Amino acid sequence: MPETLQKYLLKKNGNKNQSQNQFLPIKYYLKDSLTPRLIKNTQIYSLVKEITSRFYPSYKDKLEKRWEDFYLPSKRSGKVIALPFKIIKYKRNYFCYFFSLGSLRISKGKEVAEKIYKKIFQEALRFTRLIERKGVEILEKIVPYDLRTGRIKGKYIFDKILSLREKEKIERDYRTLLKKNIKLKGCSLNEYLEVASICYKAAYGKKVAGFSPLQMYKKFADGRDGGMLSIKNWASKKEFLDWYKSGREIGSHPFEIVFSWHRHGIYLYPPSSYNNWRYGLG
Asked: What is the rounded distance in angstroms from the CA atom of residue 276 to the CA atom of residue 269?
């Protein structure tokens, strides 16, 4: 453990033994779920605002701001770790994403919240100040490798690399399909989610075994569906097209089937959009 972090823990808890036993039991309170856990508490909201106010956002537009690479000191399997998390401010709400653990939606309000949620952001703020004083090297030994993000060439991790012959065959098949000029006469919400589920199964394999198309969409998509999931008749192509033509909520990302912290995730456009009359990936 870096010496600066050890001093931080001793100062926080009083002695070394206590520092090993009083970490936040956040795993229980940040259960992975299909939707962020809503907390309406102005005090917690102010803490999140204070954390983000210390840094420039990594991305912003008219409706949202995003901050990456915040850290929460925690404990996993008996080891001290720094748990990375990210924050989005969308309109007047803060969305906090703790990777595979789960997510929170923070808004102003007077509801009583579990003390643990206030503690999470108090400790994140304290730890941010420590990093500012001591430098980012404090994170080198305590951010688990499985929670780090980055890019690596497929040839280093894939058991089998797609051969040139296979690549050329796929391209030929695709060009042949385009020549057929197959056009779909719209789609229903059920059909859209079913096609999206094919994408999820191809990308995530066993991780989505037993999931319904809706469960997959709620787990991986952006979450701001612009009213798409509120369509009354999910089997009606007309209702889906009427919803699309009526104008979605500004800032919504209903077709971002895989959410990304960067400007764009993975989009699946339905045959009802852009007059293409076929599905498209982007």
From this structure: 9
The closest alpha carbon to 20, from 72, 74, 71, 82, belongs to: 74
**Residues 197, 234: contact at Cβ < 8 Å?**
no
Contact criterion met (CB below 8 Å) for 41 and 119: no
d(CA 174, CA 257): 22
Buried b (16+ CB within 10 A) or exposed e, 22-50: ebbebeebbeeeeebbebbbeebbebbbe
Give me the amino acid identity at 87: I
Question: What's the pLDDT band for 194 if we cut at 50, 70, 90?
Answer: very high
Radius of gyration from C-alpha coordinates of the chain: 22
CB 2 within 8 A of CB 137: yes
Burial class from Cβ neighbours inside 10 Å (0-12, 13-18, 19+) for residue 5 reads: buried
The amino acid that residue 155 corresponds to is: K
Q: What is the pLDDT, as a whole number, of residue 223? A: 81
CA angle (176, 178, 180) in 5-degree steps:
75
Q: What is the pLDDT of residue 275?
A: 55
Q: What is the pTM of this model?
A: 0.59
* Neighbour count for residue 52 (Cβ, 10 Å): 18
Strands 64-76 and 59-60: antiparallel
| CA pair distance 136, 245, nearest whole angstrom | 49
Report the distance separating Cα 137 and Cα 2, nearest Å. Answer: 9
Please report which residue ranges of the chain form alpha helices under DSSP H: 3-13, 16-19, 26-29, 42-53, 115-134, 164-180, 189-204, 213-220, 237-246
